[in-house]
Amino acid sequence: MTANPETLELISGVVRAQLPKYLSKEVVIYDVVAQNRPGPDDENYVHVRVILEEDHPRLGPRKLNRFSRNMRNLLEQSGIDHHPLISYANRSELGL
Predict the structure, then answer these.
(1) 77: closest CA among 37, 22, 18?
(2) 84 within 8 A of 71, measured Cβ to Cβ
(3) How far is the C-alpha of 96 from the C-alpha of 8, rounded, in Å?
(4) Cα 59 to Cα 28, 55, 71, distances in angstroms
(5) How do strand 44-52 and strand 85-90 relate by DSSP bridges?
(6) What is the pLDDT tens value at each position of the chain, 96 positions in all?
(7) Where are the beta strands (DSSP E) in the chain?
(8) Nearest 10 degrees: Cα torsion 83, 94, 65, 15
(9) What is the pTM of this model?
């Protein structure tokens, strides 16, 4: 299901607000971008890319999994029926 621009911005805002609770203080978020991506069977999905500043400690996979599960609940409580796929990248990986 394709998300409208307002929903994408809301999803990005929720990630920006909630993700720092799961990361160490040394991890700095540069940007969060949510967008529609084509999926199988001509169905779109929402992809959220979290772009991080360089030189941060290793991200804890358990904390990120917990964050993803909690995001699903937070979005549902906000009336958003999209369950985004979230990926993480350093600025240098994207040439920013």
Answers:
(1) 18
(2) yes
(3) 21
(4) 12, 11, 17
(5) parallel
(6) 788 999 999 999 999 999 999 999 999 999 999 999 998 888 889 999 999 999 888 898 999 999 998 998 888 888 888 889 999 999 988 876
(7) 29-38, 44-52, 85-90
(8) -60
(9) 0.87
